[in-house]
Amino acid sequence: MKQILCMSSEPWSNKLPGRTQQIVSRLRDTQILYFFPAQSPRGKTYLKGGRQVRPNVTAYELPAIPFPIPERYHMLFQMAWKKVGRFIQDTAARHRFRQPLLWTTHPRHIHLVDQLEYSALIYDCDRSWEGLPPHWEGSLAQAADVVFAASSLLADRLSPCSANIALLPNGINLPLFQPHTVRPDPMPGVTAPILGWAGTIRAGLDLSPVLYAAQACPDWGFLLIGAVDPDNPFLRRLDKLSNVYLTGPRPATEVPDWLYRCQVLMDLQRTDQPFDDVISPRLYEYLATGRPVVSMLWPDQVETFPDVVYGAHDLEEFVTLCAHAMEEAPGFVSQRRMDRAAEAAWPQRVGEVERILTTAGLLG
After folding, report:
1. Partner of 267 for a Cys bridge, out of 49, 171, 242, 295, CB 3.0 to 4.6 A?
2. Is the pTM of this model over 0.85?
3. What is the spatial distance between Cα 36 and Cα 105, in angstroms, rounded to a whole number?
4. 158, 248, 275, 340, 350 from 153: Cα distances, Å
5. What is the pLDDT of residue 275?
């Protein structure tokens, strides 16, 4: 049984499992210690020990680094990371880990690499890490035996640092979106056609297409599913419109019911993030329903799935394409959309990870 030390950038969650959790929890014949950052700058949760979250996975919160320490303060910087490294070493020793596979997910994990014993190093890059010293990620990719990249642009950016980069896009928990499931109507009595969005409504989420379309087409309903950041500048105006519905956060198991209730699904942009080509799990979830999808694009952006997604470059085009999407013939490209989602199912993605690591002699 292969032992894996997993350094995640996010806590273990039974409600909203992220990319790292989806991957490592599906690796077969493995024993995994899953470490995630402290959730409070002065938290002592790490003293309580680990939590067995799967028969083969134990999750541990790491000791906190109480305040940001610039790297130029070399001694303090090293002391902080050595404390974290000792915690991981001691935990691995208690679990009798010997030369495990080290799975990293964040550029800051480079500060642990020299402190830990491992047989091989994996770096899984799922986003562009802005605001961090570039040499952190460069050094981590250079040290890694295999680098997984969630998009072609990420792979290109890391290519000067590693010759062993494999493309590994995001995936989807497909069983939640089975098309023939009998689903309750979460909006009984609403007869208007519904256009929906699912995901956290962050401060930087550009809701101008929703506002523009809701004002231009009062006979349409606009459904926004997810937690809301009150600092989003469009929320106050949207909240005044009777054809806009904000549900707040919903359990992951309910989200498919809401998405299937929509005639059209909307994929929006974040103004606080530069354009990248990482495909969000949200888009795969949309495709799994077979419903038409209209995406907002940056001026020079080309739609990744032009055969199954409508791509708009301005507000007027967004409304026009939403109207076309609602008039789409039933079943026109629904199956093709669902096939695209099926190709991205997490078991498929993890099968590719296992194939690559086994071929490289790192698993098995």
Report:
1. 295
2. yes
3. 10
4. 9, 33, 10, 21, 21
5. 76
Structure-token pair, residue 323: 């109207």
Collapsing DSSP to helix, strand or coil, 194 comes out as strand
Q: How far is CA 293 from CA 42, 177, 194, 267, 303, in A?
A: 44, 16, 12, 7, 11
Query: C-alpha angle with apex 288: 287 to 292, nearest 5 degrees?
Result: 40
Token readout for 94 is 């208690």
Q: How many CB atoms lie within 10 A of CB 153?
A: 14
54-68 CB burial, b ≥16 within 10 A, e <16:
eebbbbbbbbbbeee
Q: What is the crossing angle of helices 208-216 and 315-326, to 10°? A: 60
Could you tell me the two tokens for 214?
Answer: 């809701």
Buried b / exposed e over 312-345, threshold 16 CB at 10 Å, is beeeebbbebbeebbeeeeeebbeebbebbeebb
**What is the chain's Cα-based Rg?**
22
Please report, for residues 54, 133, 216, 308, the alpha-carbon distance to residue 193 in angstroms, rounded to integers and kept in the order given. Answer: 42, 48, 14, 20
pLDDT score at 67: 63
Is residue 362 within 8 A of residue 101, CB to CB? The reply is: yes
Q: Residue 318: enclosing H or E segment and its boundaries?
A: helix 315-326
Nearest to 199 by CA among 260, 130, 269, 126: 269
Phi, psi dihedrals of residue 244, rounded to the nearest 5°: -115, 130
Is 176 strand, coil or helix? helix
Helix or strand run (H / E) with residue 342? helix 334-343
* Regions of the chain with pLDDT less than 50: none
CA distance 19 to 12: 11
For residue 77, count CB atoms less than 10 angstroms from its CB and return exposed for 0-12, middle for 13-18, buried for 19 or more: middle
Asked if residue 278 lies in contact with residue 199, where contact means CB atoms within 8 angstroms, the answer is: no
Q: Which two three-digit tokens encode residue 306?
A: 């032009």
3-state secondary structure of 330: coil
pLDDT of residue 66: 65
Write down the pLDDT at residue 179.
81
Q: How far apart are CA 16 and CA 256, in angstroms?
A: 14
pLDDT in the model for residue 276: 79
Render pLDDT for 137-152 as a digit per residue (tens, 0 to 9). 999 999 999 999 999 9
